[in-house]
Amino acid sequence: MLPAHAYPGLKKYPHLVGNYGGAWQNQQREFEEFPGPIVMTTNCLMKPRDSYKDRVFTLGPVGWPGVKHLGHSRDFSEVISQAKALPPLPDKEDKSILTGFHHTPVLALAGTIIEAVKSGAVKRFFLIGGCDGARPGRNYYTEFAEKVPDDCVILTLACGKYRFNKLEFGEIGGIPRLLDVGQCNNAYSAVQIALALASAFECGVNDLPLSLIVSWYEQKAVAILLSLLYLGIKNIRLGPSLPAFITPNVLDVLVKNFDIKPITTAEADLAACLAA
């Protein structure tokens, strides 16, 4: 529910009280620990365990055998009844996360951001985000974010942000160093921010002090990558492994035309970005 807090139409409801859980691959453990009903609306549903299967409902394009699908009626009466009957979520001390950096509020601060870049207070922007997954090697993105210098700003989106969005990054002249742009589909916002900055500095996106560190897992991230390539954006670092459909010949085209690079180590890739 984290992105819901960024939408005024949803945030206005008093019963939207927080966010539970992290990235999709942790759901079997987290759903088992959560005592209430769960409505799944995306294709990130994993096979429900028997311990909570009777509390899972699906909606829209997602479904699972033996799990009740709410269908087009969107009748949530059974979900509500179950939520009232089941025990409450135990109190757990956690922290607040700043979110909601859609391109509209960010561009409202364009003057402040541009001045920070011109004055040297902000040296570089990093977009670190994309899909998350359980495969070893994704701690690279946590390490990269942790090592980004204090005079740089990080934009993040999609579930890859759960690798580091609870870390403290501080501010630069009132600008948060970590800007949570939103969900996978909010890659559009990240592109709009980059295009607006390029316009303000009278240069191309590839000439901005901007590095893209993208994690991929499935088709949504690939669609985002193809959109970035269509816009002519180059020098993207992609990992933790390359998509299976990228054959040596396809990779050769991507490297030659778009300078795509597989990730190596956080230290080496960060040093290369800062030296660019």
- Separation of termini? 37 Å
Structural class of the helix and strand makeup?
alpha/beta
Taken as a percent bin, the fraction of beta residues is 15-25%
Number of helices: 10
The number of E-state strands comes to 11
User: pLDDT under 50 segments (min length 5)?
Assistant: none
What key phrases describe this protein's structure?
276 residues, six-stranded parallel beta sheet, three-stranded parallel beta sheet, globular
Characterise this structure.
It is built from 10 helices and 11 strands. It is 33% helix and 15% strand. The strands form 3 sheets. The chain has a 6-stranded parallel β-sheet. It has a 3-stranded parallel β-sheet with strand order 1-2-3, with no helix packed on it. It has 276 residues and is an alpha/beta fold. The model has no long low-confidence stretch (mean pLDDT 90).
Short description:
With 276 residues, this protein is an alpha/beta fold. It has 10 helices and 11 strands. It has a 6-stranded parallel β-sheet. The protein has a 3-stranded parallel β-sheet with strand order 1-2-3, with no helix packed on it. Strands 6-7 form a two-stranded antiparallel sheet.
